[in-house]
Amino acid sequence: MVYVLYGTDLYLRKKELEKIMREHQLESIDCSQYDFLITPLKDIVEDASTVSLFHSEKMILVDNAYFLSGTTKKTSIEQNIDDLSIYLDYLNPESHLVFIVDADKLDERKKIVKKIKQVGVIKECSQPKDMQKFISLMAGDYQIDVQAKQLLTERTKGDLLLLEQELEKLKMYRYDEKIISLEDVENYTTKTVDMDIFHFIENIVANKKEAALATYDEMLKNNEEPIKIIIMLANQFRLIFQAKTLYKKGYTEKDIASTLGIHPYRIKLALQSGRDFQCDQLLMYLKKLALLDSKIKHGAIEKKFALERFILEL
Fold this sequence. Notes:
alpha/beta, Zinc Finger, Delta Prime, domain 3, Rossmann fold, Helicase, Ruva Protein, domain 3
């Protein structure tokens, strides 16, 4: 069998690989791994064509199979796609050839992609559109309310591997009750400075100066450096500006994430925040933050009070 796992989510790719291994009763010793950018396709196909020494079946995993997408990656060797095309006509039933494509979509126009679709299995491994439903599935027989799922999504920033780890932690805490509350998520999952920055910006957008100052004070209590906070805030405003600009040009969320090299969930949040800002307003904030940074470095203003002034002057 031939499989293609495409998409940018590592967690879902990992789960699909585990599923393939379970279905064919494969162990790690039955798997060999190659990098398409440095390994001749001829050698990969030759491995797929031979019989396994350890088991009746085996898996050949091929990373960086960008030739199946519209993304161009320079290989250190010249590849002959015809080697794969010929193999697809005479598949070895004991081999499971798995191509990993770290891209949002495949190039459906390519002959090799069309041929794989005819004889193989293609799976998309992109972040779920409905995170609430996805978390419910991950939670299994545990009950978890809507607000708890929302906060868990925010704290893990759409990183499904991290989400799995945090959810397993919560399950251990509530093993007997099988009920996970908002308070559990607040108390037992990791709160990052990114989360504080997100709420900081939310308060700035809503012109809630007192709440913004309270969030800033909380970050200082957690020993976050004021200059670091300024840089992160500037980076977030820059991301909102870039996402908003590209969206206006007709880019989709996936296109923006791919272009900027940012996780799709962060792009989603940036676009949500961008609805409440004008582009010139974002640029003004960026200039003000750059000026604050310069004043701090030249000793013209005490770093702790620099951001307070920024908030009060909004």
